[in-house]
Amino acid sequence: MSLPHATPTREAIVATAQEAIARGSRSFAAASRLFDRKNRERAWLLYAWCRACDDIADGQDHGHGMTPGDGPARLAEITEKTDLALAGAVVGDPAFDALRLFAAEVKLPPALPRDLIAGFALDAAEWRPQTEQDLYQYCYHVAGVVGCMMALAMGVAPDDDATLDRACDLGLAFQLANIARDVGEDARAGRCYLPQDWLDEAGIPPGDLLALQYRDALGRLGVRLAERAAAYEASARYGTPALSFRSAWAVLAAADIYGAIARQVAALGPRAWDSRVTTSGAAKIGMMARAWGQAQRRRRLYPPSPRDATLWTRPRALR
Q1: What is the pLDDT of residues 136-148, one digit of tens each?
Q2: How many CB atoms lie within 10 A of CB 111?
Q3: Confidence (pTM)
């Protein structure tokens, strides 16, 4: 007979979540420091759960390495622990107890974390995007929905679709930048998130993605991804007037820091995957300083305006 888990303190869970973001993403860790304490801790809690789910799904350690394994079993573990956390049970795993706290504090609609798990299910099924629209659907499930959850943590109302659409846009921008940066790493792991119709158009066989004879064509696809990321990043900025100053500052800093990854991929072209693209600490400090000024002027810089109708939008069934 198993004994019930002792309830860990909020302080202990937050400390573990802070360690997770420090190890897993220096970019997000840097941007999170700009939040006020309440939102900063909630960002850490949400990140810890997302990081743990990603690590379980890929057999990674804080986003590093990738170990093949039983995808359905890993998905079942993520689902079971998430359902326990959403039910308010003590899971005994700090990352999933972080979700338990986060969900209670922001009154999280359970459909949102389950939409994220649906993204891991796509990976477990070795799904590949056939079209650009497929790519955006995937990016929603693995990142856009995280943007929506983070917006709720910052006080956005669950029925404020206009602001949540902008938050989703930022998640899409981040994921497109991730995909652009990680083309080489993903290919070596047997994965490809570039739409099949893009590859067909470029004349690149999926299994030969990194072959030297296709590097110029692949470089052009990296530029295309970066351009798509920039469009969603630009759209996301128009959601910041709905946020407090410090939340807007953090969002704008994160947009710039992550946007820099996509811009570097575009600038490097065929050489983008010779080594991992990163952003220096000094550059991040400069971006944070610039974001401070943008946050101060956000209502003038990003006045109310219709969202670009050509951008992919969350299906209503997923809201």
Answers
A1: 999 999 999 999 9
A2: 11
A3: 0.88
